[in-house]
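User: I'm curious whether this sequence folds into something compact or stays loose and floppy. Could you predict its structure so I can see for myself?
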Amino acid sequence: MPPTANSGLVKKIKGQAEAMRNAGFGVVLLYLEGNAIVTDNGSQQDRQAFTGAFARLRLLLAFFMGQISTINSASFTGIYIRHFLLNPLFIYLLLKLKKKNRQAKVVLEFPTYPYLFEYSNKPFAIRAMVWLDQFTAPFLKRCVDRVLTFRAKP
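Assistant: Here's the prediction. I'll summarize afterward.
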């Protein structure tokens, strides 16, 4: 289930984006919200909604494959991604972005809590997505420059 607009995760991501903007970086947020792809540059928000038969499938294909053509990765010096469950389409997106701009550094933030344990008592479909995440993770080394995690001081 995607996080709600008031969840801690969403607040953290928006706070990170605001901090980067305040530091002088241009930031574009790209995320899924319901059955829509949202692009938010801080001053303008664009939504591409999907409805009808197979809306979710079309949404995911457009997000992972179609957004490559709309993202002007040549203008980016870095791509910062908050981890979500990985899949082959995500790896495809990263590889294509790196191909468009080899100079851009890709940083992937992982949660500190062992996120895999959060899914142990979930339905089979969600556990299958976790398995796909574990299967896909080794391919990150081809398209991610740095992995980042935050933790409290011991």
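Summary: The first strand starts at residue 29 and ends at 33. The radius of gyration is 16 Å.
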